[in-house]
């Protein structure tokens, strides 16, 4: 057996294998395909009707392609890429559905209080620059707390929930290698939202 990459609690390393194993466990427990469990247990009860497990479910919404780092537009559906990702990352959602998911998850409408607290328990990694929990990042911006995550494959995206103001913000840039730019846009939009919030309270 290989040695651990680092002592427990000292760092983190993303691995798709754990999510694929979780999908297999769900199939074994429920006795049906993962995408059916996903829809029956989460998507339908939460009203996320524009969220799908790609390749395994059909949908009518248009799907954006991606601008690759070399300037080439990739408009194909990435079927083999997403079918291989499966439970580790083949979910497609509209930005509105993803924002609704973030709001429900981090405001306590998906997990019970104990499970949510476990998810939000963090370790400080990357030389004290990153607070990471169970599949989530913690962010402080201008004295306020945000919970969320981001990702990049052929695109860059962020999902954040404001613990203080109780709203979710989702951004997606369909271009590779734009993580710095999307974070700048995210922070500018947070400034706008925070400035406008008092008008609606």
Estimate the mean pLDDT confidence.
88
Number of alpha- plus pi-helical segments: 6
Arrangement of strands in the largest sheet: 5-6-7-8-9-10
Radius of gyration: 18 Å
Largest sheet: 6 strands, antiparallel
Distance between the termini: 57 Å
Helix percentage range: 25-40%
CATH structural class: Alpha Beta
Properties at a glance:
two-stranded antiparallel sheet, 201 residues
3D architecture notes:
The protein is α+β, with helices and mostly antiparallel strands and 201 residues long. The chain has helices at residues 16-30, 34-43, 79-85, 95-106, 113-120, 179-196; strands at 51-53, 66-67, 73-74, 91-93, 123-125, 130-132, 137-141, 144-152, 156-162, 168-173. The chain has a six-stranded antiparallel β-sheet, sandwiched between helices. It has a two-stranded antiparallel ribbon with strand order 1-4. The mean pLDDT is 88.
